[in-house]
Automatic annotation (TrEMBL):
Taxonomic classification: Eukaryota, Metazoa, Ecdysozoa, Arthropoda, Hexapoda
Ranges in a coiled coil: none
Protein name: Neuropeptide receptor
Keyword Thylakoid attributed: no
Topology of the protein relative to the lipid bilayer: Multi-pass membrane protein
GO molecular function: G protein-coupled receptor activity
GO CC terms: plasma membrane
Keywords: Cell membrane, Disulfide bond, G-protein coupled receptor, Glycoprotein, Membrane, Receptor, Transducer, Transmembrane, Transmembrane helix
Entry's family note: Belongs to the G-protein coupled receptor 1 family.
Species the sequence originates in: Diaphorina citri (Asian citrus psyllid)
Length: 392
């Protein structure tokens, strides 16, 4: 029996049982040259571990991991919802950067509501109870929200590049209307191009411990059992490049160009006030921190899944635990951004306190940062609010 591998994001109890059941059969019934691809990086020693140890690990994982996911769901839902409320209901905080921050929060909310609870269920139960259609939908939404998050960070970095390197020339480009257009186009492209992911996953049945189970998995290509399946290696390499490596290289390139221009002196476009430069530095620092945290949280799981697809990641007890920890770390990224805003921004903390007190943010709050009234807005401020009206 050749059972396909788990979804792009990680490994639950069901997946552990998949590997155990499939590869145990493989080692017993196949000769080594005919072992299914799923088992070629599977530790034979792990298969032969006694059932008591395997069951103990499964029980521990089924308790601890859902607790972490529960914390992520609570913090992520309320934190990102708070970001949306603070910015959306405060007219004075409408800027290109803050619109992108709202978009990032919406992507995180969608991920937390539609994906994390079902992944947590996969660690608790020994079957997939939600059916084939929702299996496909969850995996589709995982990919869509991952792309939406990282390419929102690309747009935020581009926004910072234009604001710092071309502060005057970019005024006509960095408008709220153009930001909304960029966000809409990004979502449309991602939603349409990710449609194949819906077809690449599905609910399958398998036998483990003499019992029939179901699981939501990647429908891997198998010449015998699934000749119409999909190549997991090609999919995972493509996902790694387009959802992690290439976007981060674009971001690093933009910041490298920004630093090169700053090292040469004042950016072209004329004199820039000291207050405006301080505002740009605050917002740029915030974007850098958000990008760095994203890269740190997603790096382990992206690398592990890539190595697995290439047959270079041995499936042993220790490596399974490492993959689970990496998955939890990646999911944590969806709840840390509101915490970063709260730590880095006095302005956000003030608006946060007003919402906690059951009142909408006071528009006058946006006129004060660090106890100083903002300079009265000019006619151009609406298109280039990058200083005191941003979250940072």
């Amino acid at each position: 029996m050749n059972v396909p591998e788990r979804d792009v994001m990680g490994k639950g109890i069901v997946d552990i049982q998949h590997h155990y059941a499939t590869c145990n059969i493989s080692y017993n019934e196949y000769n080594r040259s005919n072992i299914p691809a799923i088992c070629r990086n599977f530790s034979h020693e792990y298969i032969n571990d006694n059932d008591v140890d395997a069951e103990a690990m499964e029980r521990m994982v089924s308790i601890i991991v859902p607790i972490f996911f529960g914390i992520i769901i609570i913090l992520g839902f309320f934190g990102n919802a708070l970001v949306v409320v603070v910015v959306a209901f405060n007219q004075q905080m409408r800027s290109t950067t803050n619109l992108l921050i709202i978009n990032l929060a919406i992507a995180d909310l969608l991920f937390i509501v539609c994906c994390v609870p079902f992944t947590a269920t996969d660690y608790v139960t020994t079957c997939w109870p939600f059916g084939d259609v929702w299996c496909k939908m969850v995996q589709y939404l995982i990919v869509v929200t991952a792309y939406a998050s990282v390419y929102t960070l690309v747009l935020m970095s581009l926004d910072r590049f234009l604001a710092v390197v071309h502060p005057i020339a970019s005024m006509s480009v960095r408008t709220e209307r153009n930001a909304l257009k960029a966000i809409l186009i990004t979502w449309i492209v991602i939603v349409l191009t990710a449609v194949p992911v819906f077809n690449m996953h599905g609910e399958v049945s398998y036998t483990y411990a003499s019992e029939l189970h179901t699981a939501c998995v990647f429908l891997d290509l198998d010449p015998v059992n699934r000749p119409d399946g999909y190549n997991k290696t090609i999919f995972q390499v493509f996902f790694f490049l387009t959802s992690y490596l290439v976007p981060l290289l674009l971001i690093c390139g933009l910041y490298l160009l920004m630093l090169m221009r700053l090292w040469r002196g004042v950016a072209p476009g004329g004199h820039v006030s000291a207050e405006s430069r301080r505002g740009k530095r605050r917002v740029t620092r915030m974007v850098v921190v958000v990008v760095a945290i994203f890269a740190f949280c997603w790096c382990p799981i992206q690398v592990i899944l890539l190595l697995k697809s290439l047959g270079m990641y041995e499936i042993s007890g220790l490596n399974i635990i490492m993959q689970i920890v990496s998955q939890v770390l990646a999911y944590m990224n969806s709840c840390v951004n509101p915490i970063l805003y709260a730590f880095l921004s006095e302005h956000f903390r003030k608006s946060f306190r007003k919402v906690i007190r059951c009142g909408m943010p006071d528009p006058n709050t946006a006129r004060h940062l660090n106890g100083r009234p903002d300079i009265e807005k000019s006619a151009l401020t609406k298109t280039t609010r990058t200083g005191s009206n941003d979250i940072l």
